[in-house]
Write a structure and sequence with these properties.
Radius of gyration: 19 Å
Strand content: 15-25%
CATH topology of the largest domain: D-Maltodextrin-Binding Protein, domain 2
Number of helices: 13
Bound molecules: 1,1-dimethyl-prolinium
Shape: globular
Number of domains: 2
Helix content: 40-55%
Oligomer: single chain
Number of strands: 10
CATH architecture of the largest domain: 3-Layer(aba) Sandwich
Amino acid sequence: TSDAKGKIVITGKKFTEQVILTHLLAEYVKANTDLDVDVKDSLGGAFMLQQAIENGDVDMYVEYTGTGYLNILKQPYDPAKTPEQIYNETKKLYNEKYNIAWLKPLGFNNTYALAMRRDLAEKLGVKTYSDLVKHSSSLTFGSDAEFFERSDGYDGLVDTYGFQFKKKVTIDPDLQYEAAKNGEIDVITAYTTDARIKKYDLVVLKDDKQYFPPYHAVPIIRQEVLDANPGLEEKLNKLANILTDEKMMELNGEVNLEGKRPREVAIDFLKAEGLID
Ligand code: PBE
């Protein structure tokens, strides 16, 4: 296990952004502390990572506020709440229930957004989710497996808007943009920091009933690890607001469009920010 002082296990979810962020945390901790860093290959999504961090198999990963709030804590989402309120409540409840600390946010929001090919959206005259409802019975809908299981996922989306999609397809989140572009799937749940939305000229529709919550990216860490390592929290909080939506999209694009390796992208970014030598 990772209980002994001196070692930290870092991981992430199974999509590009999370692989970059895993390396970003790992390289930063390596360069700025005496801790022995163990980068673990992705175990899966939010539910699996929650198990792993509760068990102590993993010490730190990046979670998103709305994901923790709705899926792990099972809190109901009220769109009147600000992103700061969601963050503060999530932080408090994780601390009380799981002894897991939410550090300061990295600075960007990566939300789900229904997206489609521009020509199709224009042909149908669709700009908002509500516009899409009357066309949904002739359209296919694709998302990653987790979306069909989540509290902020498919069932709630369909209930909120009244969609009746012709067909549901499960697809790896990193393959959905290509599938939308090629016309294999009509409507996807794009992640808004993915550079392929622009590259493939997909249109992001407006969530006019505010179904999706904010999803600000935040490093989370077992409190025991912070307690065993005085000064670590302060060092990690130097990562507060180092990213924006645009910057994260750019880094994701370096991997997904330019074929760079996630670890190199993370290292180059940290160097450019003066966070490692
Ligand atoms: N997100 C949006 C999800 C997937 C898409 C990044 C907030 C999550 O990983 O929880």
